[in-house]
């Protein structure tokens, strides 16, 4: 069975408690909310350690966010992303703008 994950930005979420798993005959998909890029990188690294080789990021992740996740995962998983220049779920901002410090 193929295992994959979808990480999405969601203020006030707890990735350890709020995650859900959808299982079908062919795939097990974990949907995991995170508050920010730092949490996303941590969670993605944990997923890669568990053998999940396909991680997709929600449209709120900008280029910087995707870079941070890829750095945390290295070659252990493939990272993909949905793209929005201004994400409707983040008050029409990019995560890069919101989480840029």
From TrEMBL:
Please give the superkingdom of this protein's source.
Answer: Bacteria
Q: Which organism is it from?
A: Eubacterium pyruvativorans
The record's annotation in Pfam families points to: DUF6506 (PF20116)
The identity of this protein, by name, is Uncharacterized protein
Entry-linked InterPro entries: DUF6506
């Amino acid at each position: 069975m193929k295992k994959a994950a979808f990480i999405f930005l969601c203020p006030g979420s707890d990735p350890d408690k709020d995650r859900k798993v959808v299982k079908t005959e062919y795939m097990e998909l974990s949907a995991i909310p995170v508050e920010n890029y730092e949490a996303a990188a941590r969670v993605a690294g944990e997923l890669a350690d568990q053998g999940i080789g396909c991680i997709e990021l929600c449209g709120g992740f900008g280029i910087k966010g995707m870079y941070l996740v890829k750095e945390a995962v290295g070659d252990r998983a493939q990272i993909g992303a949905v793209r929005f220049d201004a994400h409707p779920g983040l008050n029409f901002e990019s995560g890069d703008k919101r989480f840029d410090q």
